[in-house]
DNA sequence: TCCTATTACGTCGTCCGTAAGTATT
DNA sequence: AATACTTACGGACGACGTAATAGGA
């Protein structure tokens, strides 16, 4: 049994049982993959793939279990290499962070600034996408760290930790009548045209939930991925905006006034996720600590190892 | 990086940094091992072994961490094979149980009888030794299951579960004055010549502890590994014996009388141990369940995966 | 008929074993 | 001087790529 055979096996499974596609992704020849799969099956004495003639049509029960076991082996093999990398050059390498627009635009800049100062040799890549994209990036091992408010907590194969808590702000042009209100309610809010985030972004679920629970239909005139877009249209008088607290800067956003509406929509927890079982490199843990000081390297290291879902044979 | 290189690395470390010995144990040539180690170091770009000239004198910090990581890879590789074995032939294979004399002689026979009836295809091997030997067998992967009353709970690299509880018996020839005593005390006991287990066996630690706490010096005239030896000498009138409750059978041991002295020495818990992270085969779990019905396969399977000690780089 | 996996075959790499060399105790 | 690792070299196996073949959709 060779590591590469396991790699082939996993790639075939992840390519939807298409050996040709798997071979392309592995930058090798299709017959080579085919043969190694066969050799693996012979050595194990077990049929991994259900075949109808020459097509792979599914995984046998053995194949399911062996795929899971193979993933573990590969994960540990990656970790081995990562340990070596760590010692070869403590402070060089690549750190890929998958996150959403709001985080990338308003939260990460100060973290990135400090990080690149401390680790000038680390190539930092930020992948922006919606929360499900973030999850996917992590699951595939294409990103080391994921940061998002949605989708991370329950994703299989990942561990997530709370990074920080925030709430929503209402923004409106200076002088807007809503700003003079004493106790703002959802009812009042619903009587104005609203601009906020796209579904699945930046705590939008909390907003929907609050209105639904109150059985009020908000008047959403525009939704955006991007807080800047929201602010722009609010400035133009198209409506009042609801944005994440960290997206507002009273200096930069002069002309707009923000008031706290945390009491209406509750607190949001932005979480940080890692692939379960994948040991983060030291500089990755440093990045995490810069983002959320309570997440010490020890804590993050322990979390990455914790709770491997037990798999039965 | 190849699995075999990791195997070589671990064997060299476990051979006390002696490459020649490692090569012998691996049934291969010494230069081959030497070369693969070197290749591994080159590929990783890291020095694993400290050398003084041509001798290996120690592990570098990187070597320590990489050794730990390599062990994990190998453990998962073994698990992969075990999964394959499980499916190739659900009910064939080898089960090695490491245990102490008392367990092997008095507890396991009924378990083994039932097990071999249910799994006639499984080759069952019982390795007898003192508790530290049991631990060693497990740690080296030479045994699948360890059963002992001592040493298992705190052993690194193992997980242990309580199997059953027992207590000590006092045995004496029929008619012995001690048997007529109403409330037996340590003090009374100490006034007779005693025969019991060797240190580190069958709850001997509890016996020592009880006497030490009462600040009484017992008169140990003979110690043995083996309850049968103890019974023999008790029959000969050399003294009174203290043995494990499961070692006495009033039928077979006629001529001897036993009384419970659990109130003097407390309860002993015989534990069952597995190598941490090593997935037991189904028949191994069946063996465990026969021994201790409360240890269900689900529970054992979960335990084997639990609490991987986190390792830092 | 197209697509996909297997079979066949030649080449290159690499792993392993033997033998000689060199450094350390 | 003995022991232990490294270097050198030759042989054999194995992995991979190309080309041809067979089996399904």
TrEMBL record, chains A, B:
Pfam families, alphabetized: HTH_1, LysR_substrate
A Gene Ontology molecular function term of the record: DNA-binding transcription factor activity
Keyword Translocase: no
Keyword Oxidoreductase: no
Superkingdom of the organism of origin: Bacteria
PROSITE patterns linked: HTH_LYSR (PS50931)
GO biological process: cysteine biosynthetic process
Keywords assigned: DNA-binding, Transcription, Transcription regulation
Signal peptide bounds: none
Entry's family note: Belongs to the LysR transcriptional regulatory family.
Protein name per Swiss-Prot or TrEMBL: HTH-type transcriptional regulator SsuR
Organism the protein comes from: Denitratisoma oestradiolicum
Source organism phylogeny: Bacteria, Pseudomonadati, Pseudomonadota, Betaproteobacteria, Nitrosomonadales
């Amino acid at each position: 049994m060779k590591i590469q055979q396991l790699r082939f096996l996993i790639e075939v499974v992840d390519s939807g049982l298409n050996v040709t596609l798997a071979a392309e992704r592995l930058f090798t020849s299709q017959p080579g993959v085919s043969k190694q799969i066969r050799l693996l099956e012979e050595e194990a004495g077990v049929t991994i793939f259900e075949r109808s003639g020459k097509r792979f049509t599914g995984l046998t029960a053995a194949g399911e279990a062996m795929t899971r076991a193979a993933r573990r082996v590969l994960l540990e093999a990656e970790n081995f290499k990562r340990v070596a990398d760590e010692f070869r050059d403590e402070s060089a390498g690549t750190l890929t962070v998958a996150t959403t627009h709001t985080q990338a635009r308003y939260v990460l800049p100060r973290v990135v600034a400090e990080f690149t100062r401390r680790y000038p040799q680390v190539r930092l890549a930020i992948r922006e996408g919606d929360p499900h994209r973030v999850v996917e990036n992590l699951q595939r091992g294409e990103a080391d760290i994921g940061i998002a408010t949605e989708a991370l907590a329950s994703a299989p194969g990942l561990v997530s930790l709370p990074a920080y808590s925030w709430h929503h702000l209402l923004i409106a042009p200076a002088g807007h009548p809503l700003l003079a209100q004493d106790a703002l309610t959802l009812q009042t809010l619903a009587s104005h045209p609203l601009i906020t985030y796209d579904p699945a972004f930046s705590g939008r679920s909390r907003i929907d939930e609050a209105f639904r629970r109150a059985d009020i239909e908000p008047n959403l005139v525009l939704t955006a991925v991007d807080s800047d877009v929201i602010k722009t249209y609010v400035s133009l008088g198209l409506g009042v905006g609801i944005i994440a607290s960290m997206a507002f800067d009273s200096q930069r956003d002069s002309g707009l006034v923000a008031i706290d509406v945390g009491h209406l929509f509750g607190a949001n927890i932005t979480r940080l996720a890692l692939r379960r079982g994948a040991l983060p490199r030291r500089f990755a843990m440093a990045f995490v600590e810069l983002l959320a000081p309570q997440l010490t390297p020890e804590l993050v290291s322990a979390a990455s190892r914790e709770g491997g879902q037990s798999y039965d044979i």
